[in-house]
Amino acid sequence: MTTAKSGKPLTEVTLDALRAGDLEIDDVRIHPDTLAAQARVAADHGNPQLAENFLRAAELTLLPDDRVMAIYEALRPRRSTALDLAAIADELEGLGAARNAALIREAAQVYQARNLLL
Questions:
Q1: What is residue 117's predicted lDDT score, i.e. its pLDDT?
Q2: Helix 98-113 vs helix 48-60: angle between axes, to the nearest 10 degrees?
């Protein structure tokens, strides 16, 4: 059964429930298991890059929105030092977001080679 991030079955996420005030924000957010299922479909259909994107997205559901946005901002060119990006990667790895940590480390290497770090 597909559920919202809150665990509520999607069959209960309705306009009537919204009108009645019975929904919370996590009732309309995607569950990481749903993203993992989408990753399996993408991989099964020969799209490993999309599968990896879904798996990274699933990891990011563990983080608060403001932290995701701060990481996004840190990844913009000339916004971070190599140490800043390494600290973010370490943080993500510690939270179980190994795919995102690897992506941040790879970005740091590319930014260093292209002179895009602070």
A1: 98
A2: 110
